[in-house]
TrEMBL record:
InterPro entries per record: CUB_dom (IPR000859), Sperma_CUB_dom_sf (IPR035914)
Alphabetized Pfam families for the sequence: CUB
Keyword tags: Disulfide bond, Repeat
Protein name as catalogued: CUB domain-containing protein
Amino acid sequence: MTSITGTITSPNWPDKYPSKKECTWAITTTPGHRIKLTFRELDIELHQECTYDHIEVYNGRDAKASVLGRFCGTKEPDPIISTSNRMFLKFFSDNSIQKKGFEAAYTSECGGQVRAEVKTKDLYSHAQFGDNNYPGGSDCEWVIVAEEGYGVELIFQTFEIEEEADCGYDYMELFDGYDGTAPRLGRYCGSGPPEEVYSAGDSVMVRFHSDDTINKKGFHLRYTSTKFQDTLHTRK
């Protein structure tokens, strides 16, 4: 499933789920965004360890990813948020005791921590980039972290944010570190992407803010990790 919002239900919902069933769902959203899963209703055979019937949520593309939770009974868990743009769900029922099952909604959440690697990755201002302009009322923060001894390189592919002399309405800010207390590399708005950006340390924080009026295309940037000496030292 690749839509930005949607609903997932157990088989036969809202009637009882069948016995001996295994169902899986793989949810993907835009790179640089996370998935938030909210259970609206839960009614699955109760067991202390949820050994029998259960729904299991994984933090990645398949069941090899780390487990975010295994659920049964009738108490809906708090909303679950993935750390990347992928989430995987697995529902299992054994051959006895069938209940109503579950209904869960998923939405896309901006921000979070992403890892810079030698392989180039993409980050988009909003989940519907390319289809719709960014929404009003956005406040997103991404922390891009490279491994120790490496810096972060940002290359902007597209940049179009509401223009204002001081970038006081909609803007993107870059900080040379993990959060907004780090030295600010710049605040940007208008059109025309910023120059390539290199971090001094192993991380960059990207902040995106939009107010309630005038929405533009947004931004698409690519990020990669780079050896410090590649950018700070020239060959003799």
